[in-house]
Amino acid sequence: MLKEIRIHGRGGQGSVTAAEVLAKAAFKEGTISQAFPAFGSERMGAPVRAFCRLSDKAIRTRAVIEEPDYLIVQDPTLFGQVDIFGGLKDGGVAIVNTEKPDEINVPQGAVLKPVAGTRIAMDVIGRPIPNMVMVGAFAGLTGLVSLEALQEAVKERFGGKVGDLNAEAVEKAYRAAEESK
Amino acid sequence: MAEKQEILEGAMAVAHAVARCRPEVIAAYPITPQTHISEELSQIVADGELDAEFVKVESEFGAASVILGASATGVRTYTATSSQGLLLMSEVLWNIAGMRLPVVLACANRSISAPLSIWCDHQDAEAIRDCGIIQFYAEDNQEACDQHLIAYKVAEDRRVLLPVMVNLDGFLLTHVFEPTILPDQQLADRYLPPYEAVLKLDPANPATFGAFTEPDKCMEGRWMVHDACMRSLPVIEEASAEFEKVFGRPSGGLLEEYKSRDAETILIAKGSLCGTIKDVVDEMREEGTKVGLLRIKTYRPWPTEAVLKAVSGAKQIAVIERGASFGAGGVMTPEVKETLYDAGMQTPVSGFCVQLGGREVPPDGIREIVDRVASGEKQTAYEYFRLKTEILPELVPGA
After folding, report:
1. Model confidence pLDDT, tens digit, residues B268-277
2. What domains appear along chain A, each with residue ranges and CATH number?
3. Kind of pairing between the strands at B104-109 and B77-81
4. Number of CB pairs < 8 Å for A and B?
5. pLDDT tens for each residue of B31-69
6. Which one of B117, B177, B359, B360 makes the best mutation probe of the A interface by having the most chain A beta carbons within 10 Å?
């Protein structure tokens, strides 16, 4: 089992942190994991990518993920600016932060799973940072990471009230995604 | 045992592994992609978790100079840098080696300007190849951590007394989160007792380090650096064996032979690219291609005998480099050729510069190299692999 996830976002939306938390959560349950950013000079607002691999055996490659199984897209304004769907495996799933899924031109063979990421983040955390919401939705849709492990990883990563709020947002996104399956 | 795997960022993991070696003086200047190492160490010291002096300096030249002076007073020292930072240190590093100071430093390998690039290759470390610093190369973050402990063990061994530099690929290791075991403090203390200098700067017993030396003795002084490098080879193996005994996992050593014992084609490489190469070796083995990897873990001193033994059965060899010697050929490629030539062997050796400045080396590139050398293709010059000739400007009009 090797699952490869590519996260698209903009600098400041926490894409690298999303990959990190996902890797840490999966590892808690015995899945070997790896997370890394697209190495560059990231700036606030600029398109960024981060990557996560989940596997049942040691991960030796450090190559950028060109043919992901899953996409997590934090910002729908990236469509048209960045080749988001490029290389997505046939039947691959794109989990996109959007409330206007009709506006997204989904290529054949790809499955779109819209998530109201920013709205959930605003409702629960009070800030438009959707990263943990998107990771929660990923877990709910794929079952590759449990809610409990994810919440634990989130609390460890952020700590305190921010950790609790993000863990709550994760649960909301997780439940919603589970129901939408 | 208190040791367990955690998902850690490479640079953070290295910083914590270094802290458990209990350096007493740390000096560093930030530079991408090294910065997280020194930043985290500064935090560890500020938090009171490590009893050390963290000296904030104005440049890498200052960092290396502080470390030189501190080490000469007989304390354990540390610094980390990358690229231009290493080059700015280089004058001091030659002195550190010549003065036989057991400094340990990390180089988060990064390309050298110009053009300006923050991404990985090995030209920074290779630029100081000849100064008498022992150089280790890590494949993954666990090894980068472990090699720091082994580095101190070897550096401070009285048969050696030389600086050791641990190379970890910038971004490809420093910025990757992956399962890593931080060395348990008690085990680290058992493995690495406090440093006791043979000679140190001490007002009660005045001594000079790096004295002015006339031609009748200078060459002998320089030769002793070479000799100490050569003497470190068995010490590195001993220190690695002891590491395994104490920590219960193998690490360090001179090289790794990966499916190369019966291989017709042997690839030789160092650093994190070896992970990708191993995946390709596995795939091609399944298809029936007899290919293997020789991974160089200790690049200086060059482990001549071990390399020779490892490649003696090969029909052809490809050296895969992240470096080059402009105006000549490769860096490691000629060393492999020299090793074979001195042993009277004629095995064809091809050299490939697969990457400078961080370009991605996809698995199909490794595969292409294996296919080409295995088919008997004869190389006449070191090759800049997949050079995009189509984007080269016409530099000399009409030429």
Report:
1. 999 999 999 9
2. 2-180 (3.40.920.10)
3. parallel
4. 62
5. 999 999 999 999 999 999 999 999 999 999 999 999 999
6. B177
